Model the fold of this input.
Amino acid sequence: MAAQKSDKQNKTKLSEEEKLAETVESAGESEEEQVSDDPIEILETALDAANLKAVEARQNMLRMQADMENLRKRLVREHEKARRRTLERFMSDLLPVRDSLERGLEAAQDQAATVEALKVGKQLIMKMLTKVMDDHGLQTIDPAGEIFDPEKHEAVTMLPSPDHDENTIIDVLEKGYQLHDRLIRPAKVVVSRKP
Done:
């Protein structure tokens, strides 16, 4: 009976050691390494394997962090390049307008220049500027006769007007501008109120 109890304990002890040995092998240990019967050595081997896995996991994490940081820096650089290209395109579209303004100023200094010729020149420059602004998505807000909208208009003053409904824009002092869906400058307006 004592022999059977001793055999059971030995089998249990052996199965625990086999489990530890399998853990060491699954942790990447080579099959050539010989497993000792000493539980302390088995635990030390398992600890070494776990430490190795921890080091590899840390290295992988650091590599991943470095990759994410590089990706972030690359995206920032690309965003900055795209912004510069857009700005360069806008500026190159504005240069002909500036050239026309300079030519207009030179023409205005000529004694033979007429008011009509200068007026036509200004109208052409205004068309050029409006086209550049339209090409880049800038929309003019000219709300004369519309209902006052505080999202797009800035009321400078309110005047009593029997000819207009309440909160109707009577006069536009300064046009507003909107770039795509974003308000750049609200239109400065005079709004009607009941007399």
Q: What stands out?
A: The beta strands are 138-141, 153-160, 169-174, 176-179, 182-185, 187-193. Helices lie at 2-26, 39-109, 115-135. Residues 84 and 90 are 10 Å apart (CA to CA). The two ends are 116 Å apart (CA to CA).
